[in-house]
Amino acid sequence: MATRKEALSKRASRVRRQVKKVANGRPRLSVHRSSKNIYVQVIDDVAGRTLAAASTLDADLRKSLKTGADTAAAAAVGKLVAERATKAGVKEVVFDRGAFIYHGRIKALAEAAREGGLSF
């Protein structure tokens, strides 16, 4: 029987494989959620570099948020990463939820990124 960590890793790689298959050269919006914070990056897999990133640990967000572990924080991070990605010249991405289900904080982040101008 696989441990929880192995199961999460297996699920994340399965999702990532599908995302890369449909990407068609678009950057990947990769999300990681911990119990206290949420992190997001826009990654160009062809060049192997990060184009934009945001998290609840950013100084400007940290002051305005009550906690880094709720849907309001995730929505703020989504808007911030959309703003930074647009500045970097990225409009279309593919959403990589990793091993996390599309629900709660992950969904709030995705919807805020769409409102912020990213298309996926």
From TrEMBL:
Source species, domain of life: Bacteria
Region (Disordered): 1-27
Matching CDD domains: Ribosomal_L18_L5e (cd00432)
One cellular component (GO) term of this entry: ribosome
Record-linked Pfam families: Ribosomal_L18p
Keywords: Ribonucleoprotein, Ribosomal protein, RNA-binding, rRNA-binding
Aminoacyl-tRNA synthetase found in the keyword field: no
Biased composition regions of type Basic residues, renumbered to the chain: 11-20
InterPro entries, alphabetized: Ribosomal_L18, Ribosomal_uL18_bac-type, Ribosomal_uL18_bac/plant/anim
Subunit record text: Part of the 50S ribosomal subunit; part of the 5S rRNA/L5/L18/L25 subcomplex. Contacts the 5S and 23S rRNAs.
Family statement: Belongs to the universal ribosomal protein uL18 family.
Role: This is one of the proteins that bind and probably mediate the attachment of the 5S RNA into the large ribosomal subunit, where it forms part of the central protuberance.
UniProt-listed HAMAP family: Ribosomal_uL18_B
Protein name per its UniProtKB record: Large ribosomal subunit protein uL18
Organism: Pseudorhizobium endolithicum
